[in-house]
């Protein structure tokens, strides 16, 4: 059929095709290129005729293209993706397939191809942004996230170099410190360290950053002569020599948090790029948004840790007053009794006071050692949450006389073994605070630590009313409206939760599959505050600890029915 159409019709079809069609010959020369192919390459066929086609591709891809010629002679007709480099420095990605054909005039290699630049750029951009978002959600080091963003800027756009600058105290202070490079695209560490040192040497605050007055919105600011501007100012000339790439212009993108400028993303551009594409500028703006989010997240975590540490210091101070200070007061009383017994010769009173003095002093030593242990830095290597909880139970018994049972589901223990050490520490401290409250304030005689999995179905801890309960025990029994396999065990229409919980209408934010649940239940007097400032520093500290590790916390406390503190940790 095709042969019957005639060569002129076939040529007309090829010439009008929206796909590129080419033929190359011996010595890799262009023998034919249709108009669609010429538009992609950026030069007319008349200009390319007889030229080595390899010169139109990125230098690092040419050896691979030569190897593919051999594969095509062996019958390979697969699809491949390569990068065309135009005369103006722009790059286009094309997907192509070809073969080798012998003709009376020699071997030729026809190929078809089309431009996939937009598709593959969109894939890379989506991948880079998704990776940054995932690492941000995991609480990864913001510097690692920002380095990855800077490298994505270079990999996906025509930027030679990407830098992210922010104040040295952007995370822990007011953001008025000197500028530092907190992320860059130099994964090979060839120029990065020198430029980092050069910026630090300037000791330049963000308020004095050159062209800061231009950074008023979200959009990038394009400076075609940025290199010349920096060289003209003795204070910034040293920055120009910090990289070994021949850049000329730049794109500056502000980093903002809570409406204020906190840093700037700088993309250095080669001389031939005088007007970045809309896709490039929008991608840089998206990367700046992600970098801003990473800084904001790190700042919030730092503030939360600081607040938690301050609250914990207050608690320890309260402990010192409640236990050690009280013990010292009792010791003084016993010393006065001994002094009086010596004056009166009362042997029985002397022996009783001496024995009491020994017991009280020993308890004071035990309490002080326990408090000092809490003040020491926690070892983060090789944490075993279940072992830590069992150890905690023993310490609470020795210190307060509170009997503590530890109930661990084997499957939950398997998941717990894979938790990060810092997460284990937060969970253990939450349990410790709950037991402290049970012993000191709830007048409890017994408590239970439980480690289970939540959210595997409506019959476990899930279902409507999972962490709250709608009316206490009177509305349907202690197991919920339908028993332990019905509408929920700790919730539903009949629990000890009732109106005294801090949860919502059933969950602590939606109990889904794969949630680790750590609960501390006591038999104390109950009625403890469960929300707001009335909950005190201890409750606030527990909530902040769970926030730091990506979880949540609920408290149920009914008068006369004890208190239950439950921490929920989503599992990967």
From TrEMBL:
PROSITE patterns, A to Z: HIS_KIN (PS50109)
Region ranges (Disordered): 476-540
GO molecular function: phosphorelay sensor kinase activity; protein dimerization activity
InterPro entries (UniProt xref): GAF (IPR003018), GAF-like_dom_sf (IPR029016), HATPase_C_sf (IPR036890), HATPase_dom (IPR003594), His_kinase_dom (IPR005467), PAS (IPR000014), PAS-like_dom_sf (IPR035965), PAS_4 (IPR013656)
Signal peptide: none
GO cellular component: membrane
Domain of life from the UniProt record: Bacteria
This protein's record includes keyword Kinase: yes
Keywords attached to this entry: Kinase, Transferase, Two-component regulatory system
Bias-annotated ranges (Gly residues): 476-513, 526-538
Positions of the Histidine kinase domain: 319-572
Pfam families: GAF (PF01590), HATPase_c (PF02518), HisKA_3 (PF07730), PAS_4 (PF08448)
Entry keyword annotation includes Kinase: yes
Protein name: PAS domain S-box-containing protein
Organism the protein comes from: Georgenia soli
